[in-house]
Every structure is written in C-alpha cells, then in structure tokens.
Amino acid sequence: MSNTKHHSIFRKSLIRTLIFALLIIFAQANLDSYNQSQLALVLIYFIGVLSVTLLTGISGQLSLGQGALMAVGGYTAGLVITHYQLSMWLAVPVAMLGAALAGLLLGAAAARLSGPYLAGTTLVVALAIPTLANRFFSVFKGDEGLPIDVGYPPEWLSNLLGEITYEEWELYSVLPFALIALFFASNILLSRTGRVWKSIRDNQSAASLSGINYSRQKVFAFVVASAFAGIAGALYGMRGIVAPSIYPVSLSLTLLTAAVLGGIRSIAGAFIGTVIVVFLPDWINLLLGNFELSTQISDYLPALLSGILLIVTVVINPAGVMGTKLHKGK
Amino acid sequence: MNTFLSALFSGFANGAVYSLVALGLVIVWRGAGIVNFAQMGQAMFSTYIASTMIISGYSYWFGFIVAILAGAVLGAFLDILVMRPLSHKKRGELLNSETMRAAVPVIASLGILGVLQSMAGIIWVAEERGFPAPFKQEGFTVGGTVMPFTSFDVFVVSVVFIALATTTIFFKKTGMGLAMRATALNQEVAKLSGIRTNHARTLSWAISGAASSLAGLLITPSSNLSPNTLDLALIVGFTAAVVGGLNSPIGAVLGGFIVGLLISFVTFYLSPEDVFISILALLIFVLIVKPRGILSGKDSRRV
User: Fold this and answer.
1) Each residue of A78-102: pLDDT tens digit?
2) How far apart are CA A262 and CA A257, in angstroms?
3) B249 Cβ partners below 8 Å, 6+ apart?
4) β-pair type (B139-142, B145-150)
5) CB–CB of B115 and A308 under 8 A?
6) How buried is residue B60: exposed, middle or buried, by Cβ count under 10 Å (0-12/13-18/19+)?
7) Which helix (DSSP H) or strand (DSSP E) does residue B142 occupy?
8) Global pTM?
9) Which candidate in A58, A117, A121 is best for mutational testing of the B interface (most B CBs within 10 A)?
10) Helix (H, G, I), strand (E, B) or coil at B236
11) Given A64, A256, A319, which is nearest B95 (Cβ)?
12) Least CA distance to B283: which residue of chain A?
C-alpha cells in the first residue's frame, strides 16, 4: 500500500495507454477512410468489451446483457443532446453516469445470482430494455429513434492537422474515450480492486473469509462495468442514431464473443477479440471475394465463423488468444 | 368477460408450449448441469428439416416425426462433440475457478446457437416461410359465439401432457431414468456405482432436443419460420423454468403455464409492448423471493 506502488501502477497504466494511442494513430495514418471508420468502431466496441472483461473475466459474473447497458448509455446521451444541446464531451460522461446508475440497480439484483441464472436474467434484460423505447414513445421516439452524431471537428484541430475528413473525426472523437477506458481498466486490473474481484471470482467463500464483502464488491464491479458500457453505448449511438435496432440482443452476444475470443481475462485480449469480431466480415470478403458467393451465404458466413471460433476457443483453450501466457503462471 | 376468456384460453395454449421449452431446459440442467441456450436453435433447425420434408411432398406427420428424431440426434451430437470434451477438462484447464466452470458451457451453448442459426440461414434461404398446422386454427363455435380455443390448441395441450407424462414415467420408473437422476445428483458417486454417466448425459441432451423440437413444431404455425423465430421462446422458456425451479420437471410445466398466462393477460389488458418488461419483472421477483423456484428441491443452486 505504499505510495511508490501506487505510482508504479499509475505509471504502468499510463505507459500502456500511450503505447496504445501511438499504435492507433500510426495505424489510422495508413488506412483508407472506410477502414478508419471501422477502426473507430473497433475502439467503441473495445470499450464495451472491456466492460465484459471486467465483469465476467475479472469479477466472474457472466452477463449476456451488456448491450442493454449500452442502450441505457446511448439513450441518456441521445436525450441530453436533443433536449439540452450538450456537446458530446459532456453528453458521454452523463451517459456513463446514467448507465452506472442502471448498473447499480441491476447489479444489486445480480449479486444474488450465479452462473446460468445470472446469464439468463441478463439475457432477458438485454431483450426487455430496448422495448421500453416503444413503450415510452413520447420520450424515446420508438423505432424512429433519436438521431445524434459526432458533429464537426473543432476549428483548432483542423488548424493543427489540416483538413479532417468525417471518418478521421469519427476516429479522433472516439479515441480519447477509448484511452481513458483503457487507462482505468488497466489501473483496476493492477490495483487492489482487481485482486479483490479476482479473489471473488476464484473462490467466493475464501474471499469472504479474508474479510471481503463480496456482495458489495460484486455490485461495485457491475457499476464500473456498466459505466464502461454506457460510454460505449453513447459513442455507438453517435454513429448516427439511437434506436432499439441499434442495441439488439445480438450486440450483447457480440461483446461476449469478442471478449472470449481474445481472452476474457486480459485487456490486450479484449482488443484483439474486438479487432477479430469487427474485421471478420471484411477478411472473409477479402479471402472469398473471387468466388461468386450468393448474398445468402456471405450474409451468414461471419456469424457462422465467429460461432465456430467461439466453440473452438472454449473447447480447446478457454482462456482465449491472450490466455496461454496466463496459464503458465499457474 | 369475453376478453378474460380469450386471454385465459390463449394463455393456456401458449403456456403449454412454453412448458415444453422449459421442460427441455430442465432435463439438460438436471442431466448435465448446463442451461442450454442453444436449445431453441436446435428446435429451429429440426423444424426447418420438417418444413423441407413437407414442402417436398411428404405428409405432415412424416415431417413431424423426422423432426423430433432429428432434434434428438442433434442434441446427442452436440453433447458428444462440444459439451463432453468441456466437462472432461481438468480443473486447471478450465480457467481454474468455480464461476468460470459454470460460465464456459453457457458461452459454448451461445456459440452453438450462433452456428446453428447461421447454418440454417445458409442452407434454407433466409426468407421466412410459414409452417403448417395439422389442425384447423379456427375457434370452436359454442352456441353461436366463436370460442378463442382452436382444435390446434387442443392438439398442442394434449401433446404437451403426453410428453410430460412420458418423461415423468421415464425418469421415475425406468432404470435409465434412475441412472440419469443419479448422474444429475452426483456425477462422481454415480460413476463409482457403475453408471455410465456419459451415456446418461448424452441421453438427457437427446430427450431435451426431442422435446424442444416438438415445441418448435408447435410454435411455428402461429408465427413464421426463420433462423431467429424461436429466440423469444427460449427466453420465455428460461423464465418459465426459473419460475418453476430449474430442478423440477413439474415445476417447469407449471412455470410454463404461469408465464403463458402472464403474457396473454398483459397482451390483452395492457399492451403487447409491456410483455418483455413484465417477463423481466416476474423473473426478478421470483429470483429474489424464491430463488429456487416455486417447486424446486433444496440445494439446486449449489453448482
């Protein structure tokens, strides 16, 4: 608990974040505008996948409903932007708070549940929350949704970097949030909180015996993970519209797939998994573009492949791409 | 009064099908300790097989029986191919913690669901197709008024009761049923007493596959058939199973009727948009007040 230790955690997370930032900036310079937009999507998903990593991988609570918390974040942002004309730099933190509040309610119920009960309940949540948009039509505007976007780049940035395309701005506006999320996730993982959550995941009774109030910590993990999901959801909505169809049940499952494929216990794994999930359709097109596939096949191929990858991962190496290193330590 | 009767009857008929879905979930939970989120994906797959049979000229009943058999075979196949290797992993290999050992099969079943849905999409054009009912879907006429209960509903309810009776008798009266109950109770002890626990597990997957295929055949006539048609049935069936207690087949059936009635009363008296929120409310209420379900035995959550 010494001061130097805190410093070293802080420094380590900061270095990771800076390396990540350089990596992204370097990568985007070599990409065309389509792939820049895809990279922005990767960063948004990455924040959502970090929420699954923290909740499921670190604190051991399997949630199939993170998409619903993204919806809460998206709608919060949508409402404050359309009604109070907040800028996105304010709307996203407000969305984060909104989702964290929803996470507190959900987490209080979830802390009592385990395993498949929690999974099933969160799945019902993922289905039920977006239907509220039609239920309270006057507020949420039903299927039409609330149109919001990232707006235009500020002048000083254009002066600094020259002409900025829309895709570049999509990426630049998302990047700070992804960096903040990465920094906090890294801090949590390295700090006492991360160890407490892991101890609950590994053995709840033992954690309880060493003086950890595990129900409170489980709720806390839920709130933190929901805050991440809220940021991701707000940014996701800002790609055009906040509507029930933007946050379907499959969104929650995509986040889980990405987290598991990359390695559900590691931040690097979360990023690798996200890249796989987002770019899989493009890679398939690249590989099979020469074959004249019917749309019927090409529409379903990415889902088929990610399903197969998911099964193969859990059967062969449940720790995911980044998991092999973890195992040797044990 | 008429609204009330309509809600009651349609809730009863839908509840019967949800009971079947819940029963499928309970059988795998008891037999293998897994909540199978791919279950209705399997049902969708075998319903497509039946639909293909019927379209190519075979009779409804031939397709019906082939679909149920296909459901059983697919269930057994999935257990052998995916779930058995998972359950045989050494402790350390499966992420080394209690919670992850429970989570990994759930994740695997979601992967299976994705694969089945996309395969169905690839094989049977993604266009929705109807699915025939073997009986008329028009209400009986009693004394001049059309009752909200059709001959198809009668068929559904009786099929569900036959299925329930058969599984109950199977579990209580046959040697294999006893072996399966022993496996569910304690796999190690069952193994030591000479029970082939692998067979028992696979059989529970097969029976559950057959039961859910039957549910699929009974649901699809009232909606259309598409790779995602049965997703809602899974979620409703899960709620039903939790309401009744994941450990109790009779509870599952009771839960199915409770949820079926809830859905139809909410639809008739409030609005269809409130259905999912009321399901969520019921689920959370039951999990908080009586987490083991209204009919479940003790220790069901000690996973």
Assistant:
1) 999 999 988 889 999 999 999 999 9
2) 9
3) B23, B26, B27, B30, B164, B167, B168, B171
4) antiparallel
5) yes
6) middle
7) strand B139-142
8) 0.90
9) A117
10) helix
11) A319
12) A121
